[in-house]
Structures are given as C-alpha cells and as structure tokens.
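[Discussion] Sanity-checking designs against the backbone

I'm trying to build intuition for which residues belong where. Below is a structure token string of 157 positions. I'd appreciate it if someone posts a full sequence so I can compare it with mine line by line.
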C-alpha cells in the first residue's frame, strides 16, 4: 500500500488537486488534539467549480455522485495538507457531512452522498468507514451541487 494519500488516490485513478484556499473568513482545517476538522469543500475540477446546478433539476443522480466524489477529493486534499500527505497519520474518518443542493421533491441525498463515502473507504479501508449526514439544501457556494466536510481522527506523530 502506498505511503501517501495522493499516491493512494492516484492508484484509484483520481487526481488529488492542491488544497484550495478558503473563500471567506475561515481556515480550511483545524486540528485539536488528534481531531482534524475539515471545512466544507465544494466539487472542483481544475480549480474551478464543477457540477453547477441542483439534483432533481439540472444535475442527474450519476453526476451528483461524481460531484460528491470530487468534493470528497477536496477533503482529501485538505487532509493531505494537514498531515504532510501521510496516509499512516489517518486513524479514522469519524464523520462526513454531505450537503446536496436539490429541489424540494428530491429525496435521494443518501445515494448521492455515497460518492463521498465510497471514496473514503476506497482510500482508507475500514478506517474510512464513518458516521454521516446527507442533507438537502436550497443552494451551495458557487452554485455547485455538492459540498462535503469531515472530522478525522489522526494518529499521534
């Protein structure tokens, strides 16, 4: 198994983009003891907002899952930035929050959130299994369909 988060992500056929800077007055992550809190990450590709729209309207379920995966890749970029890209520093993904911009009638947020959850398990194995919330919202920053945040337990250095 690779020793870096970025190598593990590449092994899965994805690219870990550089961690994005905050868009407002907050920090991308905060560490308190062994807990790492990752701020919400929107779906980005090439540094630009991707999958703009809402589920149940302009975004298909398949594209929603892909948007959730992209947002989760942003979370992984922040974890890599916080840990020096060390896979062995991650003890457990504790919780993942998935926010899905959707129409009032759309009720498949959990299925969309699997795009993020599945990626965490693919990258971290059993340590990637987590508690989760999948919430439908009216809109998200930059008009994207999905935003993901996380709480991660780190191993002591």
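Best answer:
Here's mine. Compare freely.
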């Amino acid at each position: 198994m690779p020793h870096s988060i970025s190598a593990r992500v590449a092994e899965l056929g994805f690219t870990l983009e550089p961690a994005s800077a905050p868009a407002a007055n907050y920090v991308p992550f905060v560490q308190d003891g062994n807990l790492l809190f990752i701020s919400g990450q929107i779906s980005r590709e090439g540094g630009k907002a991707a999958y703009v729209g809402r589920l149940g309207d302009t975004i298909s379920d398949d594209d929603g899952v892909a948007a959730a995966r992209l947002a989760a890749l942003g979370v992984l970029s922040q974890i890599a930035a916080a840990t020096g890209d060390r896979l062995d520093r991650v003890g457990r993904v504790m919780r993942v929050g998935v926010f899905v911009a959707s129409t009032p009638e759309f009720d498949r947020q959990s299925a969309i959130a699997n795009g993020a959850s599945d990626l965490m398990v693919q990258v971290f194995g059993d340590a990637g299994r987590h508690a989760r919330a999948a919430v439908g919202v009216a809109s998200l920053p930059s008009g994207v369909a999905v935003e993901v945040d996380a709480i991660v337990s780190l191993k002591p250095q």
